[in-house]
Every structure is written in structure tokens, then in C-alpha cells.
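TL;DR need C-alpha cells for one chain.
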Amino acid sequence: MNATKSDLERPTILVTGAQGLIGKAAARDLRGAGFRVLATDRLASADCQALDFTNSAATDALADSGIEAIVHCGAISGPADARNNPQLIAAVNVGGTMNLLELGRKAGIRRIIYCSSTSVYGDLAGDGPVVEDVLLRPKSLYGASKAAGELLVAGYGQQFGFSSIALRISTVYGPDRRHFCAVRTLVDAAVQGRRGILEHGLHDFRQYVHVDDVAAAIVLALEADRPKRSTYTITGGERRDLGSMAGLISRLVPGFEYLIGGSPDPGEDRHPTFSIAAAASDLGFAPRISMEQGIAALIAHVRAHGPISEQA
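>> reply
TL;DR here they are.
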């Protein structure tokens, strides 16, 4: 979707989940890039329109709104969310995606950016780097719903003539994350002068990515002229175990102590290093925020605004 129009003619982009961690940052960066943004979420706010995208009548009502692309960030957002409610996961992540694709077909969009997840890979053996073409073996309902969404997005795009890109995003962190995040839990404890306690995962390797890098990847994917693929993995370019990240926090907050259980987290996939070479070569993506920089910024944010439990 090559952006060659003047600012007054820049396309209007529908963003779902625009009050969530990724959607909020994506809407901000899209506006910064000169796009007009129709920001939506379940509840309305000053700069966000209410949209329940599981309701096909509600999504169809936007068919004449002038949108030229969709950035679909709204979802049940992780394996731990709605874990025991499979029907809700399917209704939101599969049925809701279907409704948005129908909206895209009726509106004549040129591209959809679908925020998928590295959960689609499931457990993987070996050292990596893992490329996008490996067989997907999701081990959670969440991962399966994201894989199903990828196939719907690709199929719709091919059948109805619009471009589609699925970004397989690793574990996202940042100041606005509301759902459980091991790094945020430890940072909150460190700033409050408490011991950081987690039941599992001391030796679990994770590939975090800062939300600002994810937002940058979304803009790049939207603006890419002729992307060679329909799927791209997006990470922060680092693979660390949780113990090393806790150690980093203790260096940034002297005196911080932590106790993390040594057993693997049963809710986490086992992933080797992911390759982000395709996103680098095709989209121009390169993570800008290292874990040390991101955690330092997160510590500063918590000091200024308080931990999640104390924020309005």
C-alpha cells in the first residue's frame, strides 16, 4: 500500500482495539505518519469510537466510512485470557476477524494488517533462528484462534483482491499493558520496594518486544509497496531468560530482590530464537528499543504513575 498521496488525501485507516496496548500505540504512530485514523474499541472515549466487532451489523455500518485499510489489533490478547471460555475466544478472534474482513470486502479496502502472535508456532525444538515457513502447531486455544485468523485474512485477501499481512508478534511489554506481564510484575515490585515473586519461569526464555517497536512495524507493513510475504515475525531481537531480566531490573533498581520458581511456566510456549530477517528485508523493520532501554523506561513510568494496581 504505497503512500504517495498528499497529507489531505492520506488514506483513512480503521484501527481496532485502539485503547489496548498495541492498538493505542499503532493509532498514535499512524497519525504521526500522516494517516487519518478511525480508532475503535469496545468502549468509546474522547478519541475512540465504540465498536463491537463481534456484531456484524455494527461492523457493516462502517462500510461507507471511507476506510482504505484495516489494522486489526483488537482481540482476546493472550493464552491466559479467557482460557476456560473457548467460545468467547472463537467469537472474538475468529468470528470478529471474519466480520472485519467482510467489512473490508464491502468497503473495498486495499490492505489489512492483522496482529497475530508467535503463539501460532506452539512449542518448537532446536536452536533457531526460526523462519515463518515452519509448520504451525499451536498448543493453546488462543494460538489456534490466531492461526485461524491468519488463514481467513490470507484467503479473503486472495479471493477478494486486497493485500493482507499478518504480523506474528512476540510477547509485548510497555507502560500501558494491563494484562499479566512478568516483566511488569517485577518492575512494579521493584519500584514499590517489595520482593518480586513469580511462581514459575526462572529459566524460561522469552523474546519480548517493546510496544513502540510493534507500532513501528505496523506502520511499515501498512506502507510497504509490494511485500513478498503475507506473514512476518516481529520480536525485539533479544532472547533472554526471566532470571536475566530480573537481574537487569535489580541492577537498575539497587536492592531489588526476587524469588522466581525454577519450574517451567505451563502457559508458555518453548521457542528458539525467531528470525526477523524477512521483516527487516521486506518492511525495513529493525527493533529500536533494547530490553535494557525498555525496562529503564518502564521503571521511570511506574515511578511517575504508580504500579498498575494504583492507576485509575
